[in-house]
Description:
92 residues, mainly alpha, 73% helix
Amino acid sequence: MRNVFIKICWPLLRLFETDVQPANYKASHRFALNFIGFVFLLLSFVSALVGHSSGELGAIIPAVIFLGAGLSAVVVGLLGSNGAVAKVWGSK
Length: 92
């Protein structure tokens, strides 16, 4: 099942994937990326809810930005390789 999701999300994953194994990768980097991704998803839903209740159309902008950042972080955190996670954090 994981391979199916990797194939579906490959356009996003190929931006971060590297063939080089990172020297300073830690498992806590993946945990932090997943945590931050879920926080951004939560912010997206709260922002959309507040925007809907206020009736302002411009409130969709932060919701879309947080949704994109959250989905990107969660996809790379759950499906990406160690090199992809290290590339997100800027580790070489």
